[in-house]
Specification:
Layout (H helix, E strand, L loop, with lengths): L12 E5 L2 E4 L32 E6 L5 E4 H6 L3 E8 L22 E10 H7 L8 E11 L6 E9 H4 L5 E6 L2 E2 L9 E3 L12 E7 L6 H4 L3 E2 L10 E2 L6 E6 L4 E3 L2 E10 L5 E7 L7 E2 L1 E3 L9 E9 L3 E11 L22 E7 L1
Parallel strand pairs: 3-12, 16-23
Antiparallel strand pairs: 1-2, 3-4, 5-6, 6-9, 7-8, 7-12, 9-10, 9-11, 13-14, 15-17, 17-21, 18-19, 18-22, 20-21, 22-23
């Protein structure tokens, strides 16, 4: 009897279940667009219930006409579709030395999607944005306890007015050409290009326009680079993504035969675009250019890089990869430590052996 062919597929990598945090199997996904079942999940709280109120998005504060937009209205408005990766600011947190507290992500807290929605600036202009507007606050339906604080707190973040008015900042209702799934923020999610994903608030409930900076707990107490263990001095807010790479294949600690091997991965940045990706086999003493594959029509998408390695000498090798973007930012050899473990972007490094 002929055996059935067994198809082996990658699955999300569980980081925690309460709340649910799951990583994309980034080393086993060659898709330009991450399939929704493999899109990473980052939550601060349990999933919120979906009620009729979930389909109304209120706008209030420094606007001439406060009110709400319902889901069907948004579907009828002029839309925009963009391709971009979302990266959790804690991606690669496990790389920091000494270790930091927080969700212990490896390198799977990044995924790339096709997002469709209404430009936020259209809603703000329709509502009559006042000249006094300073900060735009986005609150989700999810809420819960925060250690050290009393009561329940919604997940709420703000972005400055110039970012809010960017034509590609979206109130999204579709992911990969289908309605956003429940776990990824259905029915509405904010999408902020080039910023770490904490800005892209899920299960969007209301937008509040302030005439002063927002000081909610996820804005003032969290999502900052704190350079000192026991002091908040010199803290800097987490905003745009740093230039970064992942070596998808080969896997770390792989044993390979002599011969030709394809080394490949992805690179991305929150400023400009990826300009080059270099690779080293001698611990950074010299660097070689990799081949880049970019979609020039997509302003924000990640870049695929690859290198054909012809190796015949047996032994142990250290493979290092670094990216540079068009603003001149380059992955550093030494990453500045921060207390909450955000924004790790050191040179990607794996060890291999040829046997």
């Amino acid at each position: 009897m002929q055996r059935e062919k067994v198809i082996i597929k990658p699955y999300l990598t569980t980081i925690s279940l309460d709340p649910e945090n799951q990583g994309t199997p980034i080393h086993f996904s060659d898709d330009w667009i991450t399939p929704e079942p493999l899109f990473f999940l980052r939550n601060h709280y349990p999933y919120p219930p979906i009620t009729p109120e979930s389909f109304k998005l209120t706008v209030s504060g420094e606007v001439e006409e406060p009110g709400y937009f319902n889901y069907e209205q948004l579907l009828q408005m002029p839309s925009k579709t963009i391709v971009l990766p979302l990266e959790c600011s804690g991606n690669k947190r496990k790389e920091f030395q000494p270790p930091t507290f927080g969700t212990q992500w490896d390198d799977g807290a990044i995924s790339q999607g096709v997002w469709t929605g209404v430009p936020l600036r259209d809603l703000l202009q329709f509502s009559g944005l006042k000249t006094s507007a300073c900060d735009i606050v986005f609150e989700g339906h999810d809420s819960g306890k925060i250690v050290g604080l009393e009561g329940d707190h919604p997940f709420a973040r703000s972005i400055p007015i110039d970012v809010a008015l960017h034509p590609d900042t979206l109130i999204a209702y579709a992911l990969n050409d289908k309605p956003i799934t429940y776990k990824h923020g259905y029915p509405l999610r904010l999408i902020v290009p080039k910023w770490y994903a904490m800005a892209s608030v899920k299960w969007l409930k209301k937008i509040t326009i302030l005439d002063e900076p927002f000081d909610g707990p996820y804005q003032a107490l969290d999502y900052h680079y704190f350079p000192y263990e026991d002091s908040d001095e010199d803290k800097v807010p987490v905003t745009t993504m740093k230039v970064n790479t992942i070596i998808q294949q080969p896997l770390p600690q792989s044993s390979l035969d002599p011969g030709i091997h394809l080394i490949y991965g992805i690179a991305w940045t929150g400023e400009g675009i990826i300009d080059k990706v270099d690779i080293s086999f001698d611990k950074g003493a010299s660097w070689l250019k990799t081949k880049l594959r970019q979609d020039q029509s997509e302003t924000y998408s990640w870049t695929v890089w690859s290198y054909i390695w012809d190796v015949n000498k047996k032994g142990k090798y250290t493979v290092m990869v670094r990216a540079t973007d068009t603003t001149g930012r380059e992955q550093p050899a030494h990453v500045t430590w921060n207390r909450l473990g955000y924004g790790y972007n050191g040179i990607s490094t794996i060890n291999l052996q040829i046997v």
